[in-house]
């Protein structure tokens, strides 16, 4: 039986996020019709990959891979998570049962400047990165995300305080990866976060899905 803390979750560790331009037509079928996809260029939305390692001081310790398929809006701007993987079964259960996120188990291999994520015999992605520089203070930023659980469309807020910086990143997504058709090519921006303190709030019900 999986045991997990109730929301909000507070998590501490480090992360690297890559931002990509994504073809809207490739992701339209993944997005609930209640959400409007934000176009940043003709036919393009913005999404990306987020890789993190939550360690001592977190309500649960685990690694995480999040794929954001699109920037969307429903009275507020947020991201739509199409794929999400962790290496802790309690995190899988909590993510699914609290937030309606499609969490699955995977294996994470962290090296000094790289991380690889596998599920069974399939490599989901590999990220090689080097930090270029960090800003001299730790701002606190907020963001929103959307999800669905049963017939309800949910939204939840995240707040993060960290030492942010720019990174040079090379992302490899094999053709056998479940999200190979979404994340194509190299990121146009990569951001690192160290000394990170992340809070994920309980979800709010926006509407019943049609």
Q: Rg, please? A: 16 Å
Write down the secondary-structure element order: EHEEEEHEEEEEEEE
Number of helices: 2
- Distance between the terminal alpha carbons, to the nearest Å? 33 Å
Q: What is the β-strand count?
A: 13
**CATH top level?**
Mainly Beta
**CATH fold naming:** Acetoacetate decarboxylase-like
Which band does the percent of strand residues land in?
over 45%
Spell out the key features of this protein:
210 residues, 13 strands, globular, 7% helix, single chain, Acetoacetate decarboxylase-like
Q: Can you describe what's shown?
A:
By secondary structure, the chain is mostly beta strands. It has a single domain, classed as Beta Barrel (Acetoacetate decarboxylase-like). The chain is 7% helix and 60% strand. The chain has a 7-stranded mixed barrel with strand order 1-3-4-5-10-11-12. The termini are far apart. This is Acetoacetate decarboxylase.
Fold topology:
Elements: E1 9-23, H1 24-27, E2 36-37, E3 44-54, E4 62-73, E5 77-86, H2 89-99, E6 103-105, E7 107-111, E8 114-119, E9 122-134, E10 140-149, E11 152-172, E12 189-200, E13 204-208
Compact overview of the structure:
Helices cover 7% and strands 60% of the residues. The protein is mostly beta strands. The chain has one domain (9-208): Acetoacetate decarboxylase-like, CATH 2.40.400.
């Amino acid at each position: 039986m999986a045991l997990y803390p109730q929301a909000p979750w507070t998590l501490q560790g480090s992360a690297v996020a890559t931002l990509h331009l994504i073809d809207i037509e490739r992701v339209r079928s993944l997005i609930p019709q209640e959400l409007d996809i934000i176009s940043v260029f003709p036919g393009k939305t913005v999404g990306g990959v987020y890789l993190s390692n939550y360690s001592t001081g977190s309500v649960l310790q685990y690694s995480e891979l999040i794929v954001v398929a699109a920037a969307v809006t429903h009275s507020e701007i947020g991201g739509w998570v199409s794929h999400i993987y962790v290496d802790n079964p309690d995190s899988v259960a909590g993510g699914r049962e609290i937030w309606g996120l499609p969490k699955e188990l995977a294996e994470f291999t962290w090296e000094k400047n790289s991380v690889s994520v596998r599920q069974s015999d399939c490599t989901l992605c590999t990220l090689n990165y080097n930090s270029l520089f960090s800003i001299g203070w730790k701002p606190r930023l907020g963001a929103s995300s959307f999800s669905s659980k049963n017939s309800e469309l949910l939204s939840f807020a995240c707040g993060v305080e960290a030492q942010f910086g720019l990174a040079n990143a090379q992302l490899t997504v094999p053709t056998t990866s479940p999200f190979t058709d979404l994340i194509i090519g190299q990121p146009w921006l990569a951001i690192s976060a160290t000394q990170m303190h992340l809070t994920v709030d309980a979800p709010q019900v926006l509407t019943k899905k049609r």
